[in-house]
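Chapter summary example: a protein plus NAP.
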Amino acid sequence: MHYAIVTGASKGIGKAIAFELARRHHALLLTARSQELLEDVSEKIREQHGVDVITFPLDLSEEQAPQKLFGLCRSRSIEADVLVNNAGYGLWGAFDSLSLEEQVNMMRLNMESVVKLTHLFIPEMKKTEKAYILNVASTAGYQAVPNLAVYSAAKAFIINFTRGLHHELSRTSVSVSCLSPGTTATEFVDRARMNDRIRKMADRVAMTPEAVARIAVNGMFRGRMEIIPGASNLLSAKLAAIAPKRLVESITAAIYKMQ
Ligand SMILES: NC(=O)c1ccc[n+]([C@@H]2O[C@H](COP(=O)([O-])OP(=O)(O)OC[C@H]3O[C@@H](n4cnc5c(N)ncnc54)[C@H](OP(=O)(O)O)[C@@H]3O)[C@@H](O)[C@H]2O)c1
């Protein structure tokens, strides 16, 4: 049976994408670390949309985790026709003040797990009549961001990785899209340990995860290579591509400065 796999589905954008896919009658395989939150999400989805939901608690920053998820699918004859690589987080602070271990773990989740899951699932997705991969990057990936240096670099990796794959797979049944949300009202700011000044700024401009998910899922099923929800987010990504880099970086430096 075909399932849509969503990573980081216990809360935030991933949870909203899970609901959006369920609304369109997709059976779901949801993963994140928190078993309790996943169970709660899956119960609500079953109640509201009557689709089959499987949960699999997993820390995707662990080296063998993508293989474990793939192994579960093999053992239960789950065929993925949608793979949403959404799990991720940021860490705010000067590069040399943040722990190296934490930053490497973030790179493992935000990049390595995406590459591994995509590589594991593509062969069977190619055999499916139509399949979709959605990798979640960020508008932070369109330029360097001081004090989010590793995070923004990881998201730039996801944008380029996804664009490359989109072209490589364009003559197959697999469509690959990149979602780059701007500020979205989730627990992202807390996990990144940002301060009240940034939190207040974020609150003023944040989109809801539900609005982001609706645009994301529409764009994915239309086969779009890049999806940037929200007019101002789209504009800022476009401007970042044409404006002088130093100018753009001085703006992001002012937004994410440490005081
Ligand atoms: N919110 C924003 O402003 C924003 C903007 C641009 C891009 N994004 C991107 O959107 C994606 C979703 O973030 P969000 O805003 O929805 O944040 P969130 O509310 O913190 O949700 C993050 C999700 O990832 C899961 N996760 C975190 N660490 C994990 C790990 N080691 N293994 C497996 N799952 C893990 C979390 O579940 P557990 O904690 O249960 O593991 C949760 O389900 C991320 O890739 C983020 O970079 C967010």
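Key point: The longest strand covers residues 79-85.
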